[in-house]
Design a protein that fits this description.
homotetramer; 349 residues; alpha/beta; Rossmann fold; 2 domains; 13 strands; 19% strand; globular
């Protein structure tokens, strides 16, 4: 095996950053050569993450573009919203390929970004330049690109569950309702009442109903594949678990369709894409069945009484919903097999 | 304070039974005078439930009607489906008032029961005789009745959230989608892979999509209050927590309605009914906020883009969804204040 | 029933404060007439605790002694360490009886307080004045007192498990090792990495080994009852649950003693004290068996091979370990039955 | 890379079996060529474990020795106690190398086995033949052996934490007290009240105090390394989490020793053994810091007041406590680097 390609991680002290480190440890062609944190530069990554003892013990680097370029060819941005929009242009200018895990470059319209994120948008030139890396849908665009905007966790689970049905005209695009549920790690490592153990344990809560910043991202893709504007009803819930997202999606059938029709459609649509698994009739996926892995599992129910389909889609929000899909995009971008370094079996139980 | 009325609990070794004991310990007018279990008669209730040591230490009685009648005036049936249908007629014949917590007498149609429960239905005479005790909706029927069928947990959360909107014609009855989530205690104390800790912890799963036996119960009431048949899309999910149910409900608005309209409607509808609490605009209930109590909390979101309302309703499945509502029905039936012995503050956190 | 006595709660926005509200709602002789918070005065308690909607909706009062005195006869201090030491003297001076739930008045030596709490100690006059309210051990001192220092959560579970054996000379006082475990609510409502859901869920951690501020409190009482200085080895662990403390305690037997001997000793020692329950041989308590209640359950194992006894003691840290015992002390202080308003059955499951 | 060696797994439908599959998927020199279950032969492994869809879809094989031999060179026995004792002799006779994960061959004395396991012991010839595979202690014996008895989960965490101190004479062997805590997956996949979610969630319980079948295994090794019989006090607790074991161990110091002395001793003792990580002074390991990995992390506290050391040792019970160490033994046995295929980074959070 030859020398591996160097990659850098900015935002190494967040959950997305450490998950990138966990996964990349197994990568055959890439290795992490710089872990970066603007706030903690100069300290050891193991100070905050003792689980990395003996695995990654180096000091955290700063965010300087030239320093990164001297160590790496690709940089992952695992920073909060509002940070990548400032860093990415510098890194691109320095000749680095950039894969951004934040929401800063997902929406093409600055106005839309500002409306939903309540922050200044990135420069429009870069919004246009960034390729939206929903790997199973836009993978062709990712190949050879040098700037990828990695999708959000809710959009990934939701879109992989809806796009084939929309594209095939199986469902009425005006009827889509998305009831999404997430584990707590999606909220990041920041301490707040909203991430306090005693507040969340043995509790289930709805939040940001129709107000989540992932709404426009979902609608952007659905509208794109439908060729017509689509709006959705979208509810998010916080579930007392660390990892996992489930989107339960409802839509009215345009014609008489059976579960078997959906299974056939989706199997064909995702043929050759190992990370999407379609469940047999009568079986719906559970989040633990993808825990720690890059899989997205999808199951269906059709109710002839109401003429609606129910689609259940699950991912691990930190893997397929963040770090895993980012590595999948790295693979696509570099021309490697998309599963390289991502063949983790879900950890069950 | 005079002598309390004696009540008996059949099915004392299940979660519904022990919850009745917990709650009734605080009742001002009733006291448990017989705890009954066909399978464990003669043993102490504390063998299986050491938390009752020093509180209830008597031996479990058998199911004989005359023996019960000698100790109690009212009997709660907290037995699995298929048992109450056999016991209730005897107890009624012996002059006992009966409050059944199982599903055996909820549906008026034997055929419907057999279709959804996959068991022989109860005698039609008794199906008709049983008053469906959804206390805030059918409380008037409960007063003075001697045979109550206590509603299911999912129907209670769901119906309290939908009935006012249906009755007022705020929503299109053909558009109702119910995404329901429950803690594990709803599955009872029976040991199975489906209640195994390692299978459920850090896991979220969908189950029985459109097949749950609570579907016809929900549709029975919705159709009744609408005056026209209603069918719904109903998904159930298992959440890694012990207690709590949340129903997230979606419907299309018939006219332009704001969250404020819904709040006003529901506050008026539930005026004087202490156990339903309506949340202010922008706030949605979480299951922990009713944990251990008889409350049902309801919140709303309206999306003008899609013209849909989202209604979130939560209960503690073992209290308002079972034992608590059963005691509320006892109160109504006896002419006591409906909150008697039920003024538990939610245990938070 | 006559008019209830008014009690005030300072620190109403913490977990100890809201637990006092939950429990006092059921008290036959006392009622909460003022909920107080220095930081949130003027806002509604339901802003931070929606579970209290319809139960307690009044605005939070300020900490002024005269204002409190105009509404209440007794004040509970449920404030962080370092606050009660400043407030208690004023309140006592205003003629209020004071029950302090913090650690500020537990240790009689200012030096010891400063060593373990790393804060300035309270005035020595008040340290001496405060009666240490470990109800089952020092209840006689509490009766008629007007200033109570309520014990810590770990000390309560630990001391109730050790005192009878020490007093009876069953165990070697030099051999005591305490392995204690707590749910997360003991850390309070403050948001930090140490209370972050994703950090604690599916995790078990040891912390503050031999450094916990409850060590001198435990040793103070053990030394007192032994009549000779005792030092202990004390480890604390954080368990992924919200409520519950278990102390597993190890000691060398001084003579040949069986489990039966311990059971007999403890039953006699705690005779008439309803909140301590001794388990039969072969059965050890679990924290859920006291959840939400004021019980302390204790079980034993004797190993003849090593000549050691293992004592397991459990409480709900927010009830017997805080608010419940504080109310028990209120009852003792006022001459009411010590169980008044505290007859909650553990919520199981 | 050449052809991989075939390995078979008997007991594939248990948690140990599926964990072997998860880990071996990443092995560079070995691959699973037969998954075996006596009870489910002929069905697909994905029937019970949908998380393996697309990864392992073959049918389960039967337990026949010759059939296994035709597919594999090494067989892992991940069967319940009492089964391996019957299967291992056949497999050895067929020329297979055997790594047994059950307790059947750990104790060398049949009488001891029968006393603690309450089952008939294996044939003494095989008890003697089996090499006890505590890899960091007895690794030299494993090399080239063809029959390995893999240690238990509690013994692994406990012994790795105690052996160096015993060997070096740092602690009094008569003083050892072990307070052990485990997640629920250690109880296997069998459904019972003891593994029921609602009974274990938000609960901490002590069980089998001084009676756990791992006691003689721990004492066997401690006695061996001390050169003198050692008895211990051993308590097990069930913690509301799926994976993870922590042993908190207490012992009296023989001489004046600091935490620094222990750290130095252990670092030297485990030099070159990557899976044992020693924590710096003032830091103690948490179970999540080894979750999903083969690490055992160890930390220390010394209390000069009581002259005792507290040693905290954590593992993932399904990895280092079962499947991971079994693969580590495979590596040693085959002469491969012991970390081959085991370089999983702990999944955090």
């Amino acid at each position: 095996m030859g020398k591996k390609m160097g990659v850098a991680i900015v935002g190494s002290t967040g959950y997305g950053g450490v998950e990138l480190m966990r996964l990349l440890e197994a990568h055959p062609y890439a290795e992490v050569t710089s872990v970066i944190s603007s706030s903690s530069a100069g300290t050891s990554i193991t100070d905050g993450y003792p689980h990395l003892a003996g695995i990654r013990e180096e000091l955290l680097d700063g965010v300087d573009a030239q320093a990164i370029k001297s160590k790496a060819d690709v940089v992952f941005l695992a920073t909060p919203a509002g940070v990548a929009s400032k860093l990415a242009p510098e890194y691109l200018a320095a000749g680095l390929k950039v894969i951004d895990l934040s929401g800063d470059f997902r929406l093409k319209s600055p106005a839309l970004y500002e409306q939903w994120y309540k922050k200044p948008a990135a420069d429009e030139v870069y919004l246009e330049k960034a390729v939206f890396g929903l790997a199973e849908i836009y993978g062709e665009n990712v190949k050879g690109a040098d700037f990828i905007s990695n999708p959000g966790c809710y959009p990934t689970a939701t879109l992989l569950g809806l796009v084939p049905a929309i594209k095939a005209g199986f469902i009425d695009p005006a009827s889509i309702i998305i009831d999404a549920k997430s584990g707590v790690s999606g909220a990041g490592r920041g301490a707040s009442l909203g991430t306090h153990y005693s507040e969340l344990n043995e509790n289930l809560k709805a939040y940001k109903i129709n107000q989540h910043q992932h709404v426009p991202e979902i609608e952007m893709v659905l509208s794109d594949v439908a060729g017509t504007p689509i709006v959705t009803t979208f509810t998010t819930h916080l579930v007392p678990m660390t990892r996992g997202i489930m989107s339960t999606m409802y839509a009215t059938l345009k014609d008489n369709r059976s579960v078997g029709d959906f299974i056939e459609l989706y199997k064909e649509f995702y043929e050759g894409r190992r990370f999407v698994r379609i469940r047999p009739e009568g079986q719906w996926p559970a989040t633990k069945e993808v825990w720690g892995s890059n899989y997205c599992d999808i199951g269906f129910a059709v109710d002839t009484r109401t003429n609606r389909v129910t689609i259940v889609s699950v991912i691990d929000n930190l893997v397929k919903g963040a770090a895993g899909q980012a590595i999948q995009n790295l693979n696509l971008l570099m021309g490697w097999d998309e599963t390289s370094g991502l063949q983790f079996v879900p950890a069950y139980p």
